[in-house]
Amino acid sequence: MKHRVFGKKLNRDIKERKALFRNLINSLIIYGRIKTTLAKAKAIKSLIEKLVTKAKDGSRSQVNQIASFLTRKEPVKKLVNEIAPRFKDKIGGYIRMVRIGKRQGDNAEVVMMEWTAPPAPQTPLKPASAKSTDKKNAEKPKKVKTEKKK
């Protein structure tokens, strides 16, 4: 009987399954979207939601809990500093799963996992020579006085 059984085993033992979940979550945080099977996506969705909720709190103890799960500094910093502020007004539903189709090799259902909120727009840096391109307001180079030799 399957009474009160939670989660998917995905034909892996506990250590291998935890490593798989950790790697998928790290990739999603770093790259913003990943392509994986539907079963794996459903298995990690609740873990991601919990991590983002902890990151929104931003307290030291919550960040330490996130760091103990992810074990790498870059994803933890990105999750707390970039991703969590996008969802400050949202209670849940941080992940979108878009079905792509079936994988050719084993006919497994494949989905694209991505964040529901778009990344914050980055302002492009203007080149330093942008001022001199305007001909009307361009400053003319000053003539340097040179001393004549006798």
Automatic annotation (TrEMBL):
Signal peptide: none annotated. One of its GO terms (molecular function) is structural constituent of ribosome. Residues 115-150 are annotated as: Disordered. PROSITE patterns: RIBOSOMAL_L17. One of its GO terms (cellular component) is cytosolic large ribosomal subunit. Residues 132-141 have a biased composition (Basic and acidic residues). GO terms for biological process: translation. Pfam families: Ribosomal_L17. Keywords: Ribonucleoprotein, Ribosomal protein. Belongs to the bacterial ribosomal protein bL17 family. NCBIfam families: L17. This is 50S ribosomal protein L17. It comes from Candidatus Gottesmanbacteria bacterium RBG_16_38_7b.
